[in-house]
Design brief:
Chain B: Pfam families: BPD_transp_1. Chain B: Residues 60-258 form the ABC transmembrane type-1 domain. Chain B: It is found in: Cell membrane. Chain B: This is Putrescine ABC transporter permease PotI. Chain B: One of its GO terms (biological process) is transmembrane transport. The complex is a heterodimer. By secondary structure, chain A is α+β, with helices and mostly antiparallel strands. Chain A folds into two domains: 19-248, Rossmann fold (3-Layer(aba) Sandwich); 255-380, Nucleic acid-binding proteins (OB fold (Dihydrolipoamide Acetyltransferase, E2P), Beta Barrel), CATH 2.40.50.140. Chain A has eight helices and 20 strands. Chain A has helices at residues 61-69, 111-121, 126-139, 155-167, 185-202, 213-219, 237-242, 247-252, and strands at residues 23-32, 35-45, 50-55, 76-81, 84-85, 96-99, 173-177, 205-210, 222-227, 230-235, 257-266, 271-275, 280-284, 295-300, 305-308, 320-330, 334-341, 346-352, 367-372, 378-380. A six-stranded mixed beta sheet of chain A has the order 6-7-8-3-9-10, sandwiched between helices. In chain A, β9 and β10 (230-235) form a beta hairpin. In chain A, α2 crosses α3, α2 (111-121) packs parallel to α4 (155-167) and α3 (126-139) crosses α4. The longest helix of chain A has 18 residues, at 185-202. Chain A is elongated. The relative contact order of chain A is 0.11. In chain B, α2 (45-52) packs across α12 (235-268), α3 runs parallel beside α7 (135-160) and α3 packs antiparallel against α9 (176-205). Chain B has one domain: MetI-like fold (Orthogonal Bundle). Chain B has helices spanning 3-29, 45-52, 54-87, 94-101, 103-106, 109-127, 135-160, 163-171, 176-205, 208-213, 221-230, 235-268. The chains are: A alpha+beta, B mainly alpha. Chain A binds chain B through residues 69-71, 90-93, 96-98, 100-102, 104-108, 117-118, 121-122, 149-151, 165-166, 168-169, and chain B through 162, 164-165, 167-175, 178, 182-183, 186-187, 265-266, 268-269.
């Protein structure tokens, strides 16, 4: 598992309102003809961050990245990097480098020439170029591959050459478009680790575009979830998973059980929601910005619920419902139970398999009770 | 029919159809007899006679020069045209350009030749250039129709080229001009080579268009051969044809080897 860049609590600049962002995206929109690919996106990214733009295909994340690199011009809005307005600066003059999804290694040049290409464009002296290339090759552990052509490398090696090439000019900002997308799972996990290590040791600001939420969760200091050209939520991985701000984010990240309900009690210290779909009342142990009789949604992660055969004692008869085990997915470390509730609604509950070969485990067709804590779920109004 | 027999028979027939005429031509170029179709013994005397024929050699040299310049000019224009068509998806007149650029491919040579002749005559009376018809007018006419072929060849290669390669170079600090010479040109080089060779061959081969736009004293090789054959085939034409076939075969083999190497590289990349 990759380790995130270690930022102490007090150095998380996004929590400090007076911190100056390194990349400042202001109300940026991009239209291709009539199609709006990116719509009114505003985003601040701070120095040394590893920021992930996460979204499905067509969410506008790649277009946003290409606007940062300068390959696309925003239809409206501004992009500032390190305090400089970049809107009219062509790609070859930006202090930004990009690692392409296809790696885009020049097929007619060997590894060294590929890495040196950007340095030559800066008219760096020959001896310095040699030193820099050697340094980068050792950074990505490809010392013996300098004379090979890209077609003589494996996928993982090509990925590392592409990374070395994009780091060669010591950019202030590195953009990575699905950097691990073309690697197999095993290699991807190792490479994640290396990527973070390199990012940490060089202190470069990374912006990574990915559709893989696991990748985003492990790599990122912060994640921007994109949906249909807009930013749905920005936050640390923990916030995005545990405190989603909308139904889209709750269901896009991880899996979630979502039910509709109506507010019956709205107090500053608790809320009670009646949900016929769930077959019980939901008692939420903190205040929520809502009104009595408002219809809203409540989402809970499968691992935040517990199963039992006996009806458990709960507060005011809330937060417990019952269902029949319809299906069990055994994943090794845990099992996912699919329950059919009386209302016909299906929910998923996952339980860690703590005991080995437990003969008393809950099995198919059994009627069980499901229960959860009063702050385990998220109340969502949008 | 059994599959085991069908394939060899088909292949033999195919090859015979293609190459028997050429083989017989090569064989008869070493014929001793004055009569083209009667074998009387081995000799290389027609080669000797050919190299003493000033008119034939002059025409061959003229044709080679025309082919070289036409192919080169057509390569430059055709590549520009292909870049415009592939890289710029929206500009005024794109559809017209895309349609008309391939028109010479389907236009009968007679019409192209006649049109060219009319143009040159008109230009001479209005602009005073080109004065008369000769090597310049043939080169212009050949450039025009070779360009169409080269555009098609280069266009197909260019559209296979991954755009992100050019973007990557630009991202690393290369201006669009540099990107073209550092990245685009080396990668499409095999297409340029085969395009140039194609143009060269087409120009060397052309009889009809050249007949329209040539002037006195600028008879190309195909024109000289054709006029000789009208008076009866003389065996030194066989010798000349054998030499040309040899040169072309070498060229094709070389181009194939180069093309195979670079395309397998690109595919694996």
């Amino acid at each position: 598992m990759a380790k995130k860049p270690q930022l102490a609590i007090d150095t998380r600049p996004w929590r400090d309102p007076s911190a100056k962002p390194f990349v400042r995206i202001r109300n940026v929109s991009k239209k291709f003809g009539d199609v709006s690919a990116v719509h009114e996106v505003s985003l601040d990214i701070y120095k040394s961050e590893l920021f992930c733009l996460l979204g499905g295909s067509g969410s506008g994340k790649s277009t946003l990245l290409r606007m940062l690199a300068g390959f696309e011009q925003p239809t409206s809005g501004t992009i500032e990097i390190d305090g400089q307005d970049m809107t009219a600066v062509p790609p070859y003059q930006r202090p930004v480098n990009m690692m392409f999804q296809s790696y885009a290694l020049f097929p007619h040049m060997n590894v060294e020439q590929n890495i040196a290409y950007g340095l030559k464009r800066d008219n760096m002296p020959r001896s310095e170029i040699g030193d820099r290339v050697a340094e980068l090759l050792s950074l990505v552990k490809l010392q013996d591959y300098g004379k090979r052509k890209p077609n003589q490398l494996s996928g993982g090696q090509r990925q590392r050459v592409a990374l070395a090439r994009s780091l060669a000019k010591r950019p202030k900002l590195l953009l990575l478009d699905e950097p691990l997308g073309a690697l197999d799972k095993k290699l991807r996990e190792e490479t994640q680790f290396e990527l973070v290590k390199i990012q940490e040791s060089l202190g470069v600001t990374f912006i990574v575009v990915t559709h893989d939420q696991e990748e985003a969760m492990t790599l990122a200091t912060r994640i921007g979830v994109m949906n249909q050209g807009e930013i749905a939520m920005i936050g640390e991985p923990h916030d995005i998973y545990e405190f989603p701000n909308s139904r889209f984010v709750a269901s896009f990240i991880g899996s979630a059980n979502m039910v509709e309900g109506i507010v019956t009690e709205d107090e500053p210290d608790h809320v009670r929601i009646r949900s016929p779909e769930l077959g019980c009342d939901i008692y939420v142990g903190h205040g929520v910005d809502c009104a009595p009789d408002q219809i809203l949604w409540w989402a809970i992660r499968p691992e935040k619920m517990a199963l039992s055969r006996e009806k458990p004692e709960t507060l005011n008869g809330a937060n417990v419902t019952k269902g029949v085990v319809e299906d069990i997915g055994y994943l090794g470390d845990m099992s996912v139970y699919q329950l059919l509730l009386d209302s016909g609604k299906r929910i998923r509950v996952s339980q860690t398999n703590t005991a080995r070969g437990n003969p008393d485990a809950i099995t198919w067709e059994e009627q069980v009770y499901v229960t959860w804590g009063d702050s385990s779920g998220s109340v969502l109004t949008v | 029919m059994r599959r085991g027999l069908f394939l060899p028979i088909a292949a033999t027939l195919g090859f015979a159809f293609l190459y028997l005429p050429i083989i017989s031509l090569v064989v008869f170029s070493f014929n001793e007899s004055d009569l083209v179709t009667v074998w009387s013994g081995f000799s290389t005397k027609w080669y000797g006679k050919l190299f003493a024929d000033e008119q034939m050699l002059g025409a061959a040299w003229l044709s080679l020069r025309i082919a070289f310049f036409s192919a080169t000019f057509a390569l430059v224009l055709g590549t520009l045209c292909a870049v415009a068509l592939v890289r710029f998806k929206r500009f005024r007149g794109r559809t017209v350009l895309a349609g008309t650029v391939s028109a010479p491919l389907v236009m009968p040579d007679v019409i192209t030749g006649l049109a060219m002749l009319l143009l040159f005559v008109g230009m001479e009376s209005v602009l005073g250039w080109p004065a008369g018809r000769g090597i310049v007018t043939i080169i212009i006419a050949h450039t025009t129709f070779c360009m169409a072929y080269i555009t098609v060849v280069v266009q197909s290669r260019l559209s296979d080229l991954d755009l992100s390669l050019e973007e990557a170079a630009m991202d690393l600090g290369a201006t669009p001009f540099r990107v073209f010479f550092d990245i685009t040109l080396p990668i499409i080089a095999p297409a340029l080579v085969s395009g140039w060779l194609l143009g060269f061959t087409l120009s060397l081969d052309d009889l009809v268009i050249a007949s329209f736009v040539s002037g006195p004293g600028s008879s190309t090789l195909p024109m000289v051969i054709f006029s000789k054959i009208k008076l009866g085939v003389s065996p030194d034409v066989n010798a000349l044809a054998t030499i040309i076939i040899g040169v072309v075969a070498l060229g094709v083999v070389a181009a194939t080897i180069i093309g195979l190497r670079s395309s397998s590289k690109v595919k694996r990349a």
